[in-house]
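INTERNAL AUDIT FORM
Audit reference: QA-55
Scope: verify that the stored structure record matches its stored sequence.
Auditor: D.O.
Record contents follow.
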Amino acid sequence: MIFDLYLIGPVGTQPLGITKISQWLNSNGYKLRGKKFHVSNVQAILRNTAYIGVAFYNKRDSKTGEQRPEEEWIPIPVPPLIATEDFEAVQVRLVDRRPTARAARVTTTNNLLIGITICGCGGDGCGGGMTTSTGKSGQYKYYACSNRARAGPSICNGRRMPMHKLDEIVLNALEERLLTPERLHDLLSSWLDHALHATESRREKLRQLRTRKTSLGAGLERLLDLVAEGHLTASDPRFARKHADQKAQLSQVEADIVLLERQLANSEKRITPELIDRFAKLMRERLRESDPALRQYYVRSIVGRVEVGDAEIRIMGTTKALEHAIGRVGAKPHFPVPNIEREWCTRRDSNPWPLPSEGVLACLRQPTPEQVFLA
Protein backbone atom coordinates (compact mmCIF):
# COMPACT_ATOMS: atom_id res chain seq x y z
CA MET A 1 0.00 0.00 0.00
CA ILE A 2 2.80 2.44 0.87
CA PHE A 3 4.38 1.82 -2.54
CA ASP A 4 1.03 2.52 -4.23
CA LEU A 5 0.63 5.76 -2.27
CA TYR A 6 4.09 6.86 -3.38
CA LEU A 7 3.68 5.94 -7.05
CA ILE A 8 -0.04 6.50 -7.63
CA GLY A 9 -1.54 8.16 -4.56
CA PRO A 10 -4.93 7.68 -2.94
CA VAL A 11 -7.91 7.40 -5.26
CA GLY A 12 -8.58 10.63 -7.11
CA THR A 13 -5.38 12.38 -6.03
CA GLN A 14 -1.74 12.71 -7.02
CA PRO A 15 1.17 10.55 -5.71
CA LEU A 16 2.13 11.44 -2.14
CA GLY A 17 5.54 12.36 -0.78
CA ILE A 18 7.04 10.59 2.21
CA THR A 19 5.80 13.14 4.76
CA LYS A 20 2.29 13.09 3.30
CA ILE A 21 2.29 9.28 3.29
CA SER A 22 3.10 9.15 7.01
CA GLN A 23 0.35 11.69 7.70
CA TRP A 24 -2.15 9.78 5.55
CA LEU A 25 -1.36 6.46 7.24
CA ASN A 26 -1.66 7.95 10.72
CA SER A 27 -4.90 9.78 9.93
CA ASN A 28 -6.39 6.54 8.57
CA GLY A 29 -5.50 4.56 11.68
CA TYR A 30 -2.57 2.53 10.38
CA LYS A 31 0.19 1.47 12.79
CA LEU A 32 3.69 0.08 12.45
CA ARG A 33 4.25 -2.46 15.22
CA GLY A 34 1.72 -0.60 17.32
CA LYS A 35 3.29 2.82 16.80
CA LYS A 36 2.55 5.72 14.49
CA PHE A 37 4.31 6.12 11.17
CA HIS A 38 6.88 8.83 10.65
CA VAL A 39 9.12 9.93 7.80
CA SER A 40 12.10 7.71 8.64
CA ASN A 41 10.24 4.41 8.78
CA VAL A 42 8.21 5.18 5.64
CA GLN A 43 11.46 5.89 3.82
CA ALA A 44 13.00 2.70 5.22
CA ILE A 45 10.06 0.67 3.92
CA LEU A 46 10.33 2.22 0.46
CA ARG A 47 14.03 1.27 0.31
CA ASN A 48 13.70 -2.21 1.79
CA THR A 49 14.50 -4.92 -0.78
CA ALA A 50 12.69 -7.50 1.35
CA TYR A 51 9.50 -6.34 -0.36
CA ILE A 52 10.81 -7.72 -3.68
CA GLY A 53 12.08 -10.96 -2.20
CA VAL A 54 15.61 -10.21 -0.92
CA ALA A 55 16.23 -9.63 2.79
CA PHE A 56 19.71 -9.23 4.26
CA TYR A 57 21.33 -10.77 7.33
CA ASN A 58 24.55 -9.65 9.03
CA LYS A 59 24.02 -5.98 8.15
CA ARG A 60 25.25 -4.72 11.53
CA ASP A 61 27.98 -5.71 13.93
CA SER A 62 26.31 -7.33 16.93
CA LYS A 63 28.82 -5.81 19.36
CA THR A 64 29.24 -2.26 18.09
CA GLY A 65 25.92 -1.83 16.29
CA GLU A 66 27.73 -0.29 13.34
CA GLN A 67 26.67 -1.16 9.81
CA ARG A 68 28.93 -3.63 8.03
CA PRO A 69 30.15 -3.12 4.43
CA GLU A 70 27.57 -4.28 1.88
CA GLU A 71 29.83 -7.06 0.63
CA GLU A 72 29.49 -8.71 4.06
CA TRP A 73 25.71 -8.73 4.00
CA ILE A 74 24.11 -12.14 3.52
CA PRO A 75 21.09 -12.17 1.18
CA ILE A 76 18.12 -14.29 2.23
CA PRO A 77 15.31 -15.07 -0.23
CA VAL A 78 11.85 -14.21 1.11
CA PRO A 79 8.40 -14.12 -0.52
CA PRO A 80 8.08 -10.90 -2.59
CA LEU A 81 5.18 -8.58 -1.80
CA ILE A 82 5.40 -6.10 -4.69
CA ALA A 83 6.49 -6.14 -8.33
CA THR A 84 10.17 -5.48 -9.01
CA GLU A 85 9.35 -2.78 -11.58
CA ASP A 86 7.31 -0.88 -8.98
CA PHE A 87 10.18 -1.06 -6.49
CA GLU A 88 12.63 0.21 -9.12
CA ALA A 89 10.28 3.06 -10.04
CA VAL A 90 10.16 4.04 -6.37
CA GLN A 91 13.97 4.09 -6.13
CA VAL A 92 14.18 6.36 -9.18
CA ARG A 93 11.60 8.68 -7.67
CA LEU A 94 13.39 8.75 -4.31
CA VAL A 95 16.63 9.81 -5.98
CA ASP A 96 14.81 12.34 -8.13
CA ARG A 97 13.17 13.96 -5.10
CA ARG A 98 16.43 14.60 -3.27
CA PRO A 99 16.98 18.37 -3.25
CA THR A 100 20.57 17.96 -4.46
CA ALA A 101 19.47 15.84 -7.42
CA ARG A 102 16.61 17.93 -8.72
CA ALA A 103 16.49 20.66 -11.26
CA ALA A 104 14.89 23.91 -10.22
CA ARG A 105 11.13 24.11 -10.31
CA VAL A 106 9.34 27.14 -11.59
CA THR A 107 5.60 27.15 -10.99
CA THR A 108 4.75 30.83 -11.25
CA THR A 109 5.08 31.13 -15.02
CA ASN A 110 3.10 29.90 -17.99
CA ASN A 111 6.20 29.33 -20.11
CA LEU A 112 5.59 25.90 -21.55
CA LEU A 113 8.72 24.00 -20.49
CA ILE A 114 10.11 25.95 -17.54
CA GLY A 115 10.81 23.63 -14.62
CA ILE A 116 11.17 20.46 -16.70
CA THR A 117 13.90 21.51 -19.15
CA ILE A 118 17.45 20.34 -18.40
CA CYS A 119 20.79 21.57 -19.71
CA GLY A 120 22.48 18.65 -21.42
CA CYS A 121 21.57 15.36 -23.04
CA GLY A 122 23.65 12.22 -22.67
CA GLY A 123 26.23 13.94 -20.48
CA ASP A 124 27.02 16.94 -22.72
CA GLY A 125 25.75 19.51 -20.21
CA CYS A 126 25.75 20.31 -16.52
CA GLY A 127 22.35 18.72 -15.84
CA GLY A 128 20.99 21.87 -14.25
CA GLY A 129 17.59 23.35 -14.93
CA MET A 130 17.04 25.81 -17.75
CA THR A 131 15.36 29.10 -17.03
CA THR A 132 14.26 32.03 -19.18
CA SER A 133 16.54 34.72 -20.52
CA THR A 134 15.86 37.58 -22.88
CA GLY A 135 17.64 39.50 -25.61
CA LYS A 136 17.17 42.83 -27.36
CA SER A 137 15.49 44.41 -24.33
CA GLY A 138 13.00 41.59 -23.99
CA GLN A 139 12.14 41.21 -27.67
CA TYR A 140 13.47 37.65 -27.73
CA LYS A 141 13.02 34.90 -25.16
CA TYR A 142 15.27 31.89 -24.63
CA TYR A 143 15.58 28.79 -22.49
CA ALA A 144 19.04 29.13 -20.94
CA CYS A 145 21.17 27.15 -18.48
CA SER A 146 20.46 28.45 -14.97
CA ASN A 147 23.88 27.32 -13.67
CA ARG A 148 25.63 29.40 -16.33
CA ALA A 149 23.47 32.40 -15.46
CA ARG A 150 24.07 31.93 -11.72
CA ALA A 151 27.75 31.01 -11.54
CA GLY A 152 29.25 31.74 -14.95
CA PRO A 153 31.13 29.58 -17.46
CA SER A 154 33.27 27.91 -14.78
CA ILE A 155 30.23 25.79 -13.91
CA CYS A 156 28.84 25.23 -17.41
CA ASN A 157 29.62 26.52 -20.88
CA GLY A 158 25.90 27.02 -21.11
CA ARG A 159 23.44 26.75 -23.93
CA ARG A 160 20.32 28.61 -24.82
CA MET A 161 17.58 28.04 -27.34
CA PRO A 162 14.84 30.37 -28.58
CA MET A 163 11.78 29.62 -26.50
CA HIS A 164 9.34 29.38 -29.38
CA LYS A 165 11.61 26.97 -31.28
CA LEU A 166 12.03 24.52 -28.40
CA ASP A 167 8.32 24.73 -27.59
CA GLU A 168 7.47 23.91 -31.20
CA ILE A 169 9.98 21.04 -31.37
CA VAL A 170 8.47 19.45 -28.26
CA LEU A 171 4.86 19.95 -29.35
CA ASN A 172 5.54 18.57 -32.83
CA ALA A 173 7.36 15.56 -31.39
CA LEU A 174 4.49 14.79 -29.03
CA GLU A 175 1.95 15.06 -31.83
CA GLU A 176 3.89 13.03 -34.38
CA ARG A 177 5.75 10.48 -32.27
CA LEU A 178 3.65 9.92 -29.17
CA LEU A 179 0.04 10.98 -29.57
CA THR A 180 -0.91 8.50 -32.24
CA PRO A 181 -3.12 5.53 -31.39
CA GLU A 182 -0.53 3.04 -32.69
CA ARG A 183 2.30 4.45 -30.57
CA LEU A 184 0.15 4.69 -27.46
CA HIS A 185 -1.00 1.09 -27.89
CA ASP A 186 2.63 -0.04 -28.13
CA LEU A 187 3.71 1.92 -25.05
CA LEU A 188 0.81 0.81 -22.87
CA SER A 189 0.42 -2.83 -23.87
CA SER A 190 2.85 -4.29 -21.31
CA TRP A 191 1.69 -1.85 -18.64
CA LEU A 192 -1.93 -2.88 -19.17
CA ASP A 193 -1.00 -6.53 -18.75
CA HIS A 194 0.67 -5.66 -15.45
CA ALA A 195 -2.31 -3.54 -14.37
CA LEU A 196 -4.67 -6.45 -15.06
CA HIS A 197 -2.49 -8.75 -12.95
CA ALA A 198 -2.41 -6.15 -10.15
CA THR A 199 -6.21 -5.88 -10.23
CA GLU A 200 -6.58 -9.65 -9.96
CA SER A 201 -4.12 -9.71 -7.06
CA ARG A 202 -6.09 -6.99 -5.27
CA ARG A 203 -9.33 -8.91 -5.72
CA GLU A 204 -7.75 -11.99 -4.18
CA LYS A 205 -6.34 -9.91 -1.32
CA LEU A 206 -9.78 -8.36 -0.78
CA ARG A 207 -11.35 -11.81 -0.59
CA GLN A 208 -8.79 -12.84 2.04
CA LEU A 209 -9.36 -9.67 4.05
CA ARG A 210 -13.11 -10.16 4.06
CA THR A 211 -12.62 -13.72 5.32
CA ARG A 212 -10.28 -12.38 7.99
CA LYS A 213 -12.84 -9.75 8.98
CA THR A 214 -15.50 -12.43 9.43
CA SER A 215 -13.12 -14.50 11.56
CA LEU A 216 -12.18 -11.54 13.78
CA GLY A 217 -15.82 -10.59 14.19
CA ALA A 218 -16.63 -14.14 15.26
CA GLY A 219 -13.74 -14.03 17.73
CA LEU A 220 -15.11 -10.89 19.34
CA GLU A 221 -18.53 -12.50 19.61
CA ARG A 222 -17.01 -15.52 21.36
CA LEU A 223 -15.26 -13.25 23.87
CA LEU A 224 -18.52 -11.51 24.67
CA ASP A 225 -20.23 -14.89 25.01
CA LEU A 226 -17.60 -15.95 27.57
CA VAL A 227 -18.40 -12.83 29.60
CA ALA A 228 -22.13 -13.42 29.27
CA GLU A 229 -21.74 -17.04 30.41
CA GLY A 230 -19.66 -16.02 33.42
CA HIS A 231 -16.40 -17.63 32.31
CA LEU A 232 -14.75 -14.19 32.18
CA THR A 233 -15.52 -10.81 33.67
CA ALA A 234 -15.31 -7.51 31.84
CA SER A 235 -12.71 -6.36 34.38
CA ASP A 236 -10.47 -9.39 33.79
CA PRO A 237 -7.11 -8.16 32.36
CA ARG A 238 -7.04 -11.14 30.00
CA PHE A 239 -10.38 -10.13 28.54
CA ALA A 240 -9.33 -6.49 28.22
CA ARG A 241 -6.10 -7.38 26.40
CA LYS A 242 -7.74 -9.90 24.09
CA HIS A 243 -10.69 -7.63 23.34
CA ALA A 244 -8.46 -4.63 22.58
CA ASP A 245 -6.19 -6.74 20.37
CA GLN A 246 -9.11 -8.20 18.42
CA LYS A 247 -10.69 -4.77 17.93
CA ALA A 248 -7.39 -3.27 16.75
CA GLN A 249 -6.92 -6.08 14.23
CA LEU A 250 -10.50 -5.72 13.03
CA SER A 251 -10.08 -1.96 12.61
CA GLN A 252 -6.89 -2.49 10.58
CA VAL A 253 -8.56 -5.09 8.35
CA GLU A 254 -11.57 -2.85 7.77
CA ALA A 255 -9.30 0.05 6.77
CA ASP A 256 -7.42 -2.24 4.35
CA ILE A 257 -10.72 -3.39 2.85
CA VAL A 258 -11.85 0.20 2.28
CA LEU A 259 -8.57 1.07 0.57
CA LEU A 260 -8.66 -1.99 -1.69
CA GLU A 261 -12.29 -1.37 -2.60
CA ARG A 262 -11.41 2.19 -3.60
CA GLN A 263 -8.44 1.03 -5.65
CA LEU A 264 -10.55 -1.58 -7.42
CA ALA A 265 -13.34 0.92 -8.07
CA ASN A 266 -10.78 3.30 -9.55
CA SER A 267 -9.39 0.57 -11.81
CA GLU A 268 -12.80 -0.35 -13.19
CA LYS A 269 -12.37 2.33 -15.84
CA ARG A 270 -10.26 0.12 -18.05
CA ILE A 271 -8.18 1.62 -20.83
CA THR A 272 -9.69 0.46 -24.09
CA PRO A 273 -8.59 1.02 -27.70
CA GLU A 274 -11.48 3.46 -28.07
CA LEU A 275 -10.36 5.44 -25.01
CA ILE A 276 -6.78 5.57 -26.31
CA ASP A 277 -8.00 6.86 -29.69
CA ARG A 278 -10.08 9.50 -27.96
CA PHE A 279 -7.17 10.51 -25.73
CA ALA A 280 -4.79 10.86 -28.70
CA LYS A 281 -7.22 13.10 -30.58
CA LEU A 282 -8.09 15.17 -27.52
CA MET A 283 -4.48 15.73 -26.48
CA ARG A 284 -3.42 16.77 -29.98
CA GLU A 285 -6.11 19.43 -29.83
CA ARG A 286 -5.28 20.55 -26.30
CA LEU A 287 -1.57 20.90 -26.95
CA ARG A 288 -2.51 23.81 -29.20
CA GLU A 289 -4.74 25.53 -26.64
CA SER A 290 -4.66 29.31 -26.84
CA ASP A 291 -4.51 29.53 -23.04
CA PRO A 292 -0.81 29.05 -22.11
CA ALA A 293 -1.65 27.77 -18.61
CA LEU A 294 -3.84 25.00 -20.05
CA ARG A 295 -1.26 24.13 -22.69
CA GLN A 296 1.40 23.88 -20.00
CA TYR A 297 -0.86 21.67 -17.87
CA TYR A 298 -1.50 19.21 -20.70
CA VAL A 299 2.18 18.97 -21.65
CA ARG A 300 3.24 18.33 -18.07
CA SER A 301 0.57 15.70 -17.60
CA ILE A 302 2.59 13.41 -19.89
CA VAL A 303 6.11 14.91 -20.02
CA GLY A 304 8.40 14.81 -17.01
CA ARG A 305 11.68 16.01 -18.46
CA VAL A 306 13.15 17.61 -21.58
CA GLU A 307 16.92 17.32 -22.00
CA VAL A 308 18.52 19.80 -24.39
CA GLY A 309 21.90 18.76 -25.75
CA ASP A 310 24.22 19.96 -28.47
CA ALA A 311 23.03 17.43 -31.04
CA GLU A 312 19.96 15.89 -29.49
CA ILE A 313 16.81 16.65 -27.53
CA ARG A 314 15.18 13.99 -25.38
CA ILE A 315 11.58 14.21 -24.24
CA MET A 316 10.88 11.82 -21.38
CA GLY A 317 8.09 10.66 -19.13
CA THR A 318 6.57 7.51 -17.64
CA THR A 319 3.95 5.06 -18.81
CA LYS A 320 2.28 5.54 -15.42
CA ALA A 321 1.84 9.22 -16.28
CA LEU A 322 0.30 8.26 -19.62
CA GLU A 323 -2.07 5.80 -17.97
CA HIS A 324 -3.09 8.40 -15.41
CA ALA A 325 -3.66 11.02 -18.12
CA ILE A 326 -5.75 8.62 -20.22
CA GLY A 327 -7.78 7.69 -17.15
CA ARG A 328 -8.58 11.38 -16.63
CA VAL A 329 -9.98 11.97 -20.12
CA GLY A 330 -12.78 14.46 -19.73
CA ALA A 331 -11.77 15.49 -16.19
CA LYS A 332 -11.32 19.14 -15.28
CA PRO A 333 -7.65 20.24 -15.06
CA HIS A 334 -6.50 20.76 -11.48
CA PHE A 335 -3.05 22.22 -12.20
CA PRO A 336 -0.83 20.05 -9.97
CA VAL A 337 2.70 21.08 -9.06
CA PRO A 338 4.93 19.73 -11.85
CA ASN A 339 7.42 17.03 -11.03
CA ILE A 340 10.59 15.99 -12.82
CA GLU A 341 10.78 12.30 -13.72
CA ARG A 342 14.15 10.74 -14.51
CA GLU A 343 12.97 7.39 -15.77
CA TRP A 344 13.11 7.44 -19.55
CA CYS A 345 16.18 6.91 -21.66
CA THR A 346 16.30 5.63 -25.21
CA ARG A 347 18.65 2.99 -26.57
CA ARG A 348 21.72 3.59 -28.67
CA ASP A 349 21.58 1.30 -31.68
CA SER A 350 20.55 1.30 -35.31
CA ASN A 351 16.86 1.35 -34.40
CA PRO A 352 15.84 4.86 -33.30
CA TRP A 353 12.55 3.70 -31.83
CA PRO A 354 12.69 2.73 -28.15
CA LEU A 355 11.15 -0.42 -26.78
CA PRO A 356 7.67 0.11 -25.29
CA SER A 357 8.99 -0.96 -21.89
CA GLU A 358 11.59 1.81 -21.98
CA GLY A 359 8.91 4.47 -21.84
CA VAL A 360 10.68 7.04 -24.02
CA LEU A 361 8.36 9.47 -25.74
CA ALA A 362 10.78 10.81 -28.29
CA CYS A 363 14.46 11.26 -28.96
CA LEU A 364 15.07 13.95 -31.55
CA ARG A 365 18.10 14.89 -33.53
CA GLN A 366 18.10 18.64 -33.74
CA PRO A 367 17.28 19.46 -37.35
CA THR A 368 19.46 22.53 -37.70
CA PRO A 369 22.51 23.85 -35.84
CA GLU A 370 20.98 27.29 -35.37
CA GLN A 371 18.45 25.85 -32.94
CA VAL A 372 21.15 25.62 -30.28
CA PHE A 373 23.07 28.68 -29.12
CA LEU A 374 26.17 28.18 -27.00
CA ALA A 375 26.69 31.20 -24.77
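Auditor finding: record pair retrieved intact. The chain has three domains: 2-101, 117-179+287-371, 190-270.
Action required: none
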